[in-house]
Amino acid sequence: MAQILQRTPLHDAHAALGARMVPFAGWEMPVQYEGVIPEHRAVRNDAGVFDVSHMGEFEVEGPRATELLQATLSNDLGKIGVGQAQYTLLPNDAGGIIDDLVVYKLDEFRFLLIVNAANRATDFRWVKEREVPGSDVRDVSAAYALLAVQGPHAMERLGLPPAPRFTFAMAEVDGVDCMVNRTGYTGEDGCELLVMAEDAATLWDRVLARGVVPCGLGARDTLRLEACFPLHGQDITPDTDAISAGLGWCCALDKEFPGAQELRETKARGPARKLVPFVMEEKAVPRTGMAIEGGGEVTSGTHSPMLDRGIGMGYVPAESAAPDGELTIDVRGRARRARIVKKPIYKREETS
């Protein structure tokens, strides 16, 4: 029996623009409009907008909400105040990554978690089961839509004032109330606009009217890979740990949370393998699952629109993970050379 795909509040708008729709994490989502390369370049050079309303939203509220989240998430919530956001992990008891997410501190006793679409049910169950008296976890995903407006001119296009990264505030965009979150998944400036579901189509139209280019999930993937942002389900999974994935920086190992002791031990002895970014030195496009000589594996791979060459990330033995090291990747039965680089893979050249 065919799976019935969910649709975001912007489905009709995508259809009207001629978007190519594909199944993604149980949703029918636009993969591209004009094409991945022009959409990618629009975000790198100006501003693009993505419908990411498939993402999940949880509210965690109550006088012991902080206590619940401190005991459940990897990062230290004590580092942020009201109006600030934080990238963090939802670890399992073995130190694996159930999900990566962003938590927003709405007020002293209320938080918003924005989680990956594919993991929404698992995440909710995990956090809900750990509720303590004085805390309440609710899945409020159906009430909201989320538009990611990204690019060096994103805030200017929206007529919004500059603000520090990982902060948020309520604002209006052409008469539509929304929460402006200074977060994103492209490596560019911009924001993610959280809006009531019934206002999503109006906001989408008004953002496009300001000259922002509609973009699909295809460009979102190439952009995040150029920026070396991990994709859950590929680069990070419940079977991979934060230390090996280079995400130890968002794990407060001086507090207790699921898997904390395992992560402390992994950090102390050093991980057996590490996730590294690489650029192909020969004409080839790496793909997920391709073998890296010496016992490694590609977790994400694509053609970079900005570098015009194959790029990717993959796990390799720790002793082979130093920047500028050479890799040999089996690309459809042919050995192809690649070089490990520092993050991010693509960085805009500074202009004087």
Describe the structure.
The protein has helices spanning 11-16, 36-45, 65-70, 120-128, 154-158, 200-209, 217-226, 260-269; strands spanning 20-24, 27-32, 48-51, 56-61, 85-91, 97-107, 110-115, 136-139, 144-150, 168-173, 176-181, 190-196, 213-215, 273-280, 291-292, 296-304, 309-317, 326-331, 334-340. It is of the alpha+beta class and 352 residues long. Among the domains are: 11-54 and 143-226, Gyrase A, domain 2; 272-340, Beta Barrel (Elongation Factor Tu (Ef-tu), domain 3), CATH 2.40.30.110. The strands form 4 sheets. It has a 6-stranded mixed beta sheet with strand order 10-11-12-9-3-13. Strand 6 and strand 7 (110-115) form a beta hairpin. 46% of the residues are buried. The model has no long low-confidence stretch (mean pLDDT 97).
Question: Secondary-structure blueprint of this entry?
Answer:
Layout: H1 11-16, E1 20-24, E2 27-32, H2 36-45, E3 48-51, E4 56-61, H3 65-70, E5 85-91, E6 97-107, E7 110-115, H4 120-128, E8 136-139, E9 144-150, H5 154-158, E10 168-173, E11 176-181, E12 190-196, H6 200-209, E13 213-215, H7 217-226, H8 260-269, E14 273-280, E15 291-292, E16 296-304, E17 309-317, E18 326-331, E19 334-340
Parallel strand pairs: 3-13
Antiparallel strand pairs: 1-2, 3-9, 4-7, 4-8, 5-6, 6-7, 9-12, 10-11, 11-12, 14-17, 14-19, 15-16, 16-17, 18-19
Brief summary:
This protein has helices spanning 11-16, 36-45, 65-70, 120-128, 154-158, 200-209, 217-226, 260-269; strands at residues 20-24, 27-32, 48-51, 56-61, 85-91, 97-107, 110-115, 136-139, 144-150, 168-173, 176-181, 190-196, 213-215, 273-280, 291-292, 296-304, 309-317, 326-331, 334-340.
